[in-house]
Amino acid sequence: MSAAPEGGRFIRLAETGRRRFFITLGDRRIEALEGDSLLTALLLAGSHLRQSEFADGPRAGFCLMGACQDCWVTLADGRRFRACTTLAEDGMALEPIP
Amino acid sequence: MSIAVIGAGPAGTRAVETLVAHGLRPIWIDEAPRSGGQIYRRPPANFCRSPETLYGFEAAKARRLHAAADAAARLADYRPSTLVWDIAEGSLQIAGPDGLGSVPFETMILATGATDRVIPLAGWTLPGVFTLGGAQVALKAQGVAVGRRCVFFGTGPLLYLVAYQYAKAGAHVAAVLDTAPASAKRRALPRLLAGGGALAKGFYYVAWLRARGIAIASGIEPLEILGASQVRGLRFRDLTGGECEIAADAVAFGFGLRSETQLADLAGCRFRFDPLNRQWLPETDEDGRALGLGKVYLAGDGAGIAGADAAELAGLRAALALLSDSGSAVPAARRQWIARRLARSRTFHRGLEQAFPFPDHLARRVADGTILCRCEAVTAGELRASVAGIGARDLNRAKAYSRVGMGRCQGRICGAAAAEILAAALDGEIASVGRLRGQPPVKPLPAGLL
Amino acid sequence: MTGPRAIETTKRADALVLGGGIVGASVALHLRRRGLTAILIERDRVGQRASGVNFGGVRQQGRALIELPLSRRARRMWSNLPQLIGIDGEFVAGGHLRLGRSDADMAVIEQHCRDAAGYGANFELLGRNAVMARFPWLGAIVLGGSFSAEDGQANPRLVSPAFADAARRAGAEIQEGVEIVAGTSEPGAFRLTARHATEYVAPRLFNCAGAWAGEVAGWFGEGVAIKPEAPQVMVTEPIAHRIDPVLGVVGGDLYLRQITRGNVIFGGGEGAISEDWLRSRPKPDVARLACRTAVAVVPHLKNAAIIRMWTGVDGDTTDGSPVVGSSRRHEGLFHAFGFCGHGFQLGPAAGAALVDLAVDGRCETDISGLGIERFLGGAN
Predict the structure, then answer these.
(1) How far is CA C347 from CA B136, C60, C157, C338, in A?
(2) CB C303 to CB A78 under 8 A?
(3) DSSP codes, C139-202
(4) S-S: B77 plus which of B8, B27, B439, C29, CB 3.0-4.6 Å?
C-alpha cells in the first residue's frame, strides 16, 4: 500500500508494479504508471482537473466512466481529451490547470 | 446479412457469442478498450490483481464472461475503443482509433448498458465527489481509492458492494449511509429471495462492514456535501431526524442506475415510460425486438435495469430472436427457459426497487439554488422558472428555456432529477413531462475530427 | 369540408392567423395593438419549428435587395424587443461579417456593398489585411469581407415563443395543437376547418404557415411551389470567447456565431426530411463537411468538441426570397412565408407589415418585390 503524494486526491491501493513514466502539467513533472488514465495520474498528483466555465469552481470529474463529460482536459498543443477514458502516455504535455 | 452489436458488457458478449456460434460474423463495437462492461470491467492488460480480488463473489462469472468475450471477439469483427456517435440511414457513424468511419448494417443489437442515477444536492460538483460506479471504476480498473477517508451514500445494492470493496482493498471507509429505511428492506425480503444468492451476499457485505466498525445507517436524508473548493464532509439527517456531519475527503453516491438510451433513440425506437425504472425506455417485445421498428434488438441494462445476470440472458435471447427472424430454427424450450429465468430476475429487481426505493421526494425538493445541470451550471430554480418563463410543460421545452440538458453530457446526469423537478413544478406525474431526445453526436467529438 | 364529422364549434374573430412561428405571432401581436381580435392557430407548440430551432442570425447583410427594406424595418424592431415582447431574447448587435474565399466572392461582396448603400444599409468593405488585423482568429482561406455593424444574433428558442406569449398577454387567443385540414373562402370571410370538429371564421386570414404555407395558399387558388429545406446546425462546448460578429460566407455553406456563454453555433448544408415534412434529422456527412468548412474559416475551432446537432424544416421559394404581402385573389387574405431559412430577422417586421396592409390598406415599407404575384405567372 503506497501513501499518496502530497496534494493528491486519489491514493494507490494496489497495482504499483507497473512501468513508470512522466507526463508534464505546465512545467511540473508528474509520475504515472502504465495503464493509468489521465484522470488517475492527474488526481494522484493534484486535487482537481479544471475550473468550471461558469465560475462555480474547480471540478475533478464525477462518473469516471465517460458519461458525465466533467473531466475534459487540454494538452499543451490544444487538443482536448476526456481524462477518464484516455490513457496517460509517456511524454504527454498538458496545459497547466488553473 | 450484416449484423452490428453495440456494447461488450454481459448482454453484448452473450449476443455475439450466440451469433458467432451460428457461423455469423457480426461487427462488435464497444467504447471501452476491453470487454466486460461495468460490473465485470477489466483493468488494463498489464494489471495483475486476480479476479477474486477484483470481483469477489462474482469472480467465477467474470472469468467465464471474459473468456467467452475473448473467444467471440476472435470470430467477430471486434472494434474496441470505438464510439458509435450517430445512427442514420442504415449506417453506424463511428469514431475509433483509426478515426471516423461509417459502418452499414442490416440488423443491430443494442446493449448499451447503464450508468449511475443521481440526485443533485448542495456541493455535489465539488472535487472529490463521485458516483458509486465511478468510485468502483477507480478501484477496479485503476487500483486507486478516490480519497483517504471515503463516505458512501445513496441507496441500492451498489452502495454496499462498493463500500465493501473499498474497505476490503484497504481504503478507509468512514460511513455507509442509505436513504432507504430498514422497514423497506424488510418488506422486500420475499421478492429478494427470488435472486438466488444475491440476498445472502448483501447480508454478508453488511455484516462484514459492521464487524469492522464501519458505520452503516438507514433511512438517512443527505443534506449537503460540505467544502469550499473540495469535499470536506457530508451533512445529513439521520433516522431520528437529527442533523449529523461526517468528515470525508471523498464522497461517492448514487441511487440505482439509469439506462443509456441515446442510440436507441437515434435508431428510431419507440419509447414508453417505465414506472419501475422511472425512465422512458425503448419499447421491446419479450424477446428484445424493438417494437414498430424491425431489425433492431435490445438487451441488457440499456433497455431497463435488471442486473448483469439478466443481461447475459437477455443478450442470448435477443440473438436467438435475431436468428429466428432470419430463418434459423430456435428451439422453443430454450426460449422458455430463458423467459423463466428472466421472470425470476424481474421479481428480484422489483424487490430491489422496493428495498432501495429511488427517493424521488429528494429529487423534487432539490433547492432552487442547487446546481442541477453540472455541464452548464444551471440551477434547479432556473429549470423551475421555465414553467412561467416559457410555459414549459415538458422537458424539451424546459431545456430550450433553461439550458438543462444542453451540455456536454446531454442530460445523462441531470435528466432523472430534471424530470422529477419539472413534474413537481407542474404538479403532475413524471411521465407527463416526457423525455430529453437524443441528438448526435451522442458524446462530444472534436470539430477537427469530424 | 373534409369528412362527414359534424362541426361542433365555430370560433370567430376579426382575424385568423395560421401558424405560430415568429411571423404568425408577430401578426397576432400587432393585430391586438391595432385593436382587432385575433385567433392564432398552431398545429404543434408556438415557436417550435423553424422559428425556434434556426441558426439565430439577425442580419440585413447578404440579403436579396428586395428584402432589404423589410429587413431594415425589422432591425429597428430588434432594438426594441424588450418593449415589444418583454425580453431582449439575448439579442446582441456584435456585427455580421460576410467573408469571401475567392476573387469571385469578393466581387459579389463589393457589389452588394454598393447595392445595399442605396437602401441606406452601409457595410464596411474589408480587404485581406484589414479583416485579418481586425479578426485575427480567421483562417488563411479568407480573402476579405464586409462588416455590418448593426447586425448580430439572438436566441430563437426564447424569442419566437416570447412573441406568442406577448400576443397572448395582449389578448390574442392562441390555439396550440390544432391542425387545420382545409380552408375555404366565402363572401366576406375565410373558414378554416380543424381536424377535430372545430371551425374558425373571420373576414381576415393571415397565412404564416411556414413550409406548409404554399399548400395553404393553394386552398385559395394561389398555390406557390415550396420546396422544404432542413438547414443543419451544430453547437460546440463552451470555449473562450473570441468571436464577436456573426459570420457568413458567400455561397452560404457556413454561418457561425459564438454566444456569450462561449458555445459556438454553426451550420451549413442540409439534413434529411421525412415524407410528411414534419420531421428532419441531421446527416453525418453534411455535418463533417460543415465542420471542415468551419475549421477552415476559424481554425481554432478544431479542438472544440461538437456536442449536439439538429435540423428544422423551412420552406424555399424558387427565387430564394419570401412571399410577404396581400393576396392577389382575395380581399382580406395576407401571406408571409417561404423564408428560405433566413426569416428569423425578418419575422417581426413581416408580421407588422401584413397588419399595416390589413388595417391601413397600405404599408410604408417597400415590400413590392416580395409579392405573391411573382410566382403566379402561368396557370395555377
Answers:
(1) 53, 12, 14, 11
(2) yes
(3) -TT--EEEEETT-EE--HHHHHHHHHHHHHHTT-EEE-S--EEEEEEETTEEEEEETTSEEEEE
(4) B27
Q: Is B27 helix (H, G, I), strand (E, B) or coil?
A: strand
Q: Grade residue B342 by pLDDT with cuts at 50, 70 and 90.
A: very high
Query: In the predicted model, is pLDDT for residue B1 greater than 90?
Result: no
Q: Which amino acid is at B341?
A: R
**DSSP letter assigned to residue B41:** P
A67 touches chain B (CB under 8 A): yes
What are the residue ranges of CATH 3.50.50.60 in chain C?
Answer: 9-53+157-225+319-373
**pLDDT tens by residue, C321-349:** 999 999 999 999 999 999 999 999 999 99
C362 CB within 8 Å of a chain A CB: no
Q: Which are the contacts of C56, defined by CB distance < 8 A and separation ≥ 6? A: C153, C154, C155, C156, C257, C265, C344
- Is C299 an 8 Å CB contact of chain A? no
Q: How far is residue B5's CA from residue C146's CA, in Å, rounded to a whole number?
A: 51
| Eight-class DSSP state of B348 | H
What domains, with CATH codes, occur in chain B?
Answer: 3-115+258-327 (3.50.50.60), 118-255 (3.50.50.60), 361-433 (1.10.10)
Q: Is C237 on the interface with A (CB under 8 A)?
A: yes
Give the H or E element holding residue C291.
Answer: helix C284-297
Domain spans in chain A, listed from the N-terminal domain onward: 20-94
Q: Do B144 and A68 touch (CB under 8 A)?
A: no
Contacts of A74 in chain C (CB under 8 A): 303
CB B130 to CB A62 under 8 A? yes
pLDDT of residue C379: 45
This prediction has a pTM of 0.96
**What is the model's pLDDT at position C377?**
74
Total residues belonging to chain A: 98
From chain A, the residues in CB contact with B142 under 8 A are 15, 35-37, 40
Q: Do B441 and C306 touch (CB under 8 A)?
A: yes
10 Å Cβ neighbour count for A21?
17
Four-point Cα dihedral C192, C193, C194, C199, nearest 10: 80
Instruction: Enter the C-alpha cell of residue B191.
Output: 421478492
Interchain CB contacts (distance < 8 Å): A and C: 15
Structural fold of domain A20-94: Ubiquitin-like (UB roll) (3.10.20)
* Mean pLDDT of the residues in chain B: 96
**C237 and B440 in contact by Cβ < 8 A?**
no
With an 8 Å Cβ cutoff, are C237 and B89 in contact?
A: no
Average pLDDT over residues A55-83: 97
- Per-residue confidence at A6, pLDDT binned at 50, 70, 90? low
Chain A 2-61, residues with CB within 8 Å of chain C CB atoms:
53-54
Give contacts of B86 with chain C, Cβ < 8 Å: 282, 284
- Are B416 and B423 within 8 A, CB to CB? no
Asked whether the predicted pLDDT for residue C3 surpasses 70, the reply is: no
Mean pLDDT of the C213-236 span: 97
Residue B436 makes CB contacts below 8 A (sequence gap 6+) with B395, B396, B399, B405, B410, B411, B415, B418
User: What radius of gyration, in Å, describes the C-alpha atoms of chain B?
Assistant: 22
Looking at CATH, the fold of the domain delimited by C96-149+231-311 is given as D-Amino Acid Oxidase; Chain A, domain 2 (3.30.9)
CATH superfamily of C9-53+157-225+319-373: FAD/NAD(P)-binding domain (3.50.50.60)
Residues paired with residue B100 on neighbouring β-strands, in sequence order: B95
